[in-house]
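Recap from last week: sequence in, structure out.
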Amino acid sequence: MPLASLIAAGVLLAGLDRTLPPPPMPEVSALVTDREGRALRAFPVEDGRWRLPVDPEAVDPAFRAALIEIEDQRFYSHHGVDPLAMARAVGSLVSTGRIVSGGSTITMQTARLLEPRPRRTIGAKLIEMVRAIQLEWRYSKAEILQAYLTLAPYGGNLEGVRAASWAWFGHEPDVLTPDEIALLIALPQAPEARRPDLRPDAAIASRARLLARMERAGLISADRAADAAEEPAPMRRAFPALAWHAAEHLARPGGEVRSTLDIRLQTALESRLAELAANAGPDVQASALVVSLDGREVRAAVGSAGRDRAGGWIDLTRRARSPGSVLKPFIYGLAFEDGLAGPGTRIADLPRRFADYNPENFDRTFRGDVTIAEALQHSLNVPAVQVLDAVGANRFLAAMSFAGGRAIVPRSNEGDAGLAIALGGLGITAEEIAVMFAALGAGGEALPLAWTEGEAAANRSGTGYRLLGARAAATLVEVLQRSPAPPGRMPARLTSGAPAIAYKTGTSYGFRDAWAAGVSGNYAVVVWVGRADGAPRPGETGRQAALPALFDIFDVIARRDPSGISALPEGPAVRRASGPLARFERGVSGPDIVFPPDGSDVWADGPGRAFALSARGSAPLRWYERGTPLEIDAAGQSVWQPRGPGFYELTVVDANGRSARTRVRVRMPGPS
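Predicted structure tokens:
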């Protein structure tokens, strides 16, 4: 064509394109994939159609070759309209009196899909030709092929080869068998008449004709074509629905989001939690997170154990619940940071009142003198509250808030956080607990959870919040590795025998929430078990309900990523501290009276009954009744012998001159 004619044609096309531009490409379904691009969950577009984004290079090359061969042999050489194909179609029309071959190119078919017309008339065909030329003017061949593969109809509400492959075969179209290729080419020619689920015979017959054409074109052998023709018609399958809650948060309209999740780990986690909840009862739910310390990538996230269970539609990893004792390690970690204590520091596990707060251990027993390490490993309550009293509840909450924990905290009338937060008297989410335990395993540096590679890269290049110093964090990990293992497990080890797990369990007040959180190698894991409505589950503790699942998940991780679960070095057993850290006394204003407690009634059998007095404090302890020293028996125990019924005031003084006082009422049989 002469240069002048080309210029004139270009000007004409440009003017037409400005005046009557072709319709825009329609919106595609939101799709969330795992870290390797494997589909996790797809979302239909507004009209309920499944139209998944398609990358032609990710579609089986054998399908693309067969499509071009059968639908548009000169696709890469024509400019939207194929004159030879049109001449063949016109000849067939003249000779038979009906349309036998439409002569439509892939570009023309794409134009028809973008701008559907109710009737296939000659006028409609002419408009398609013009639109096809416009598309070729605007877009590359790759973009046109992508549009066709995204829009081609496959029956019902299915559009595009990717949606069709998932719906009819249950997998991506990256690898297709001959029968699948033939069906995917045949269906768009008559999508409703050949729907496999409604008209299986028509689908099989049309597929057989396409297989024969593929054989004649040399795309497939006769034996493979014959075998493929024997396959039954497929039934429609459900679209991917993994990581249901996480995908909903990540989905973006009209596009694909590649997450940091690992589909195999996600599948294993969903299966394990579904099994856990099913065995625990009909109303029980569970949620869990797996976080890689590298970039804080979320590798698996299960918001509930199943949408068919009560509360299953709620993302329970984002709901604030009471953590029970899960946060105790960070209280002790701050004490290590402040030089208040070390893991070998002795601390008294005895009854003690903190103003109007009187904590008890979970089993309602006390163990006397223990080390800080033992107090943490056995989750003793009074030592944790005593250490928090010294660290400061407000400081502890400030550290959590900077680390990403937006705690819902009850406060006193003075505006200070209460000491009950040591035992779970606040609300925090599984995601926030994951941030803190990931920090514990990463030398104390807290970073936000990353759900995409971009967020992970930002974490790797940025600076987080220093929740704990590296030494304090490492010390806590060593202490927690020595916590008592769940039944049937070696202490703090996986069944695979690889690494030690530093973990902590928690049970909220009234058995409403059971927790287990831990870190090992490059991973942190958080598990929650309970009821979505917060109803109690009497007797179900974090150790019983959640800890076995935590160990199982670490087992799965070890099989999936052995290098990421390398064993952390296990240091020597915690030694008894000496010097200033030998004993934890900070925050104690005076001795603590164990018996008789202040304001209590003491029953005596009669006059002359003696009572052994008990208090905690710096020895020696001296007891007085209204200023009169009390006797000490042969065992060195102070003994009090009330004279009769009535009110008494007793005082104890420690070696430093600090005192505590208790007022009691003595009752005896008969009038008092």
